[in-house]
Amino acid sequence: MNLQDLNRIRQITVIAARHGFGEVAERAGVWRMLGRKEKVEVSQESQRTSTAHRFRLFLAELGPTFIKLGQVLSTRADLLPAEFVEELATLQDNVEAIPLEQIHAQIREALGKEVHELFAHVDPEPLAAASIAQVHRAVTLEGEEVVIKVQRPDIAQRIDADLGVLRSLARLLEAVVEETGIYTPSGIVDEFDRAIHEELDFINEATNIRAFLENHKDRPYLKIPRVHAELSSRTVLTLEFIRGEKINPSVLSEADRKQVAQNLLEASFRQLFDDGLFHGDPHPGNLLLMEGNRLALLDFGVVGRLTRPMQETLVMLCLAVALKDSDSVARILYRVGVPDARANLMGFRNDIESILGQHLPTTLGQVDARTLLRDLLDLAVKYRIRIPKEYALLSRASISTEGMLRSLYPEMNILEVALPYAKELMAGRYDPSQLQGGLMRTLLRFQSMAQDLPTQLSQILMDLETGKFSVTVRAEQFDKLNENLRSVAVIAFLGLCACGFIVGAFIAFAPRPPMYGNVPVMGIVGIAVAAALFGAVLTWYLFGGRFGKVSVSRFLKKKR
């Protein structure tokens, strides 16, 4: 670790102490590593606010890398408690715009030509300035209006340097902080590393945009910007400029609000169940309202992908929630997740039943999806079940979409609007008109169990083939009998060894002096040695060996 890293760790530690996290730094031994401890006063605001709020302020003060860390964590309800996720969702970039000269230098370095050779005009005032990139309007040499997303100078190097510091701090924290979640601090840093480097690669974002454009080409209600490949690279992304306005429900008529809400819901369902590719952060800032109530989708740095089995599982989960079938919900979540150890499935099911009873009191149209999804993910974390990041990302996207739908058209009955999609998706499998019947619930449980059975049988067959399959039968009486037989065998063996030693000593030393009367002294010594060895080995066996420990433990339990 170099001097620059140590200075950065010191800065982070001072800011952490200012926001009330000084005790954690003390326990982790950070001050000891730095060689001296500074006295830092906790800010008055931090003294009055929650831990989650203080954590957000802490990240915001540390700069771009940590702001992005908070934004990434806000999309991962499987990594942090719901209170932290909700707080970090409000974390916004607050960075100064970089001068136009630096923008020109970045474009020249990325595309290999001077700006005037690529664009007829670049607006000097940025449309947006974020921690990763800055966005400017421009006009191509052919006269087409575009927007240019330009990565900030040296941002990748700064993030890599901060990642090294984060890894060092994570290792220190792991030594002193009890693990309360599924992921360790190092695991969270690794997740952030993957996410931030995907976002730093604009080629990856361009690929996502092309996929969305292909998926939505026949859907007139949604507009996706076109990528200008010849004006794009890993650090510069040039897109078609889309004219539109931010969605403001207060200026729309009731008919317009209803139409926009239906378009948004239609786009969301098609992304999830037809395309398997969905926008991971559809907040109001990433949506524009165009003429004719059409929607334009922006910023494709964070997207989620669902395979066909994942889509089918999602449908099954939605139906199970609608039916308040806690058993199926528990089995589905357990199957899609990766438990750290064998979970208490019965307790998991009972807790889910309590959550469904709380959030589904009457009809599905009155469900608060935000609270329901949050509680289900928190429950999975409680039972140490790793939910795949795609589902966690989907949870965040669903909560954001539902919030916009309710602000646009609060009278909308989401169940009625979603029913045609359910009929389409479940055609040939179930009859959606029987959603409240016992037959549907029975079929749902059978489907869940039928999906689990092949995997379980395959695992058993592979274990048999490789010789790893074993059956253990336990019975308390058999265990006691087995223990007693082992004890008798060991004592008999030790007795035979001692007798052999005694007899051998007499035979070896009987005809030889010294003698004490008619008894050979060496024979007596042999008996004493044999007795001492027998006693020592027996003592070790009873009080130091594996079976002795069991016997002593049982003896102490009886005394208690």
From TrEMBL:
In the record, the note on similarity to other proteins reads: Belongs to the protein kinase superfamily. ADCK protein kinase family.
Q: Which UniProt keywords apply?
A: Kinase, Membrane, Transferase, Transmembrane, Transmembrane helix
Gene Ontology terms, MF aspect: kinase activity
Its name, as the record gives it, is AarF/ABC1/UbiB kinase family protein
Q: Does S-adenosyl-L-methionine count among this protein's keywords?
A: no
- Top-down, what is the taxonomic lineage of the species of origin? Bacteria, Pseudomonadati, Myxococcota, Myxococcia, Myxococcales
Q: Respond yes or no to whether keyword Lipid metabolism is given for this record.
A: no
Organism of this sequence? Corallococcus llansteffanensis
Which Pfam families does the record cross-reference, listed alphabetically? ABC1 (PF03109)
Residue span, ABC1 atypical kinase-like domain: 91-332
**Membrane-crossing residues?**
488-509, 521-543
Note the SUPFAM superfamilies from the entry: Protein kinase-like (PK-like)
